Amino acid sequence: MGKTAEQVIRLDLPSSMQLVYVLDAIISEILREMGFDEETSEQVNLAVIEAGTNAIKHGNKEDPNKRAYFEFAVHPDKLAVVVRDEGQGFVREEVADPLDPVNLLKSSGRGLFLMEACMDVVTYGNSGAVVNMVKYKSSSEKQQA
pTM of this prediction? Predict the structure, then answer.
């Protein structure tokens, strides 16, 4: 229990969907180092990729002059992820619920739903241009879904 200081890994990417593989490689390595189980790692990976995709595609509109910023704070008991873009943000309540039958064939809203289902905590700041996500290592914290 001597290691309490967090390690923070920062990444900023040009807004190109072709660079999402970099994000995938980094989050996979962080999760492996932290010792998350395979199922949890897949959930976190999916949530981070969705958040990154949203930042690049929807937030920055794939503008190569805008960047998407990622911060991974590694704690002994959790991983905290912050994803920020240079877009105008959005209002979470205005994004369609993908589980509502009228929206089943629409693609919008699925990424946010997946992020919220896969992570223990998801909050939005700066009018939606910042997403904060947390995944705890112990399974007792996530038995609410």
Answer: 0.86
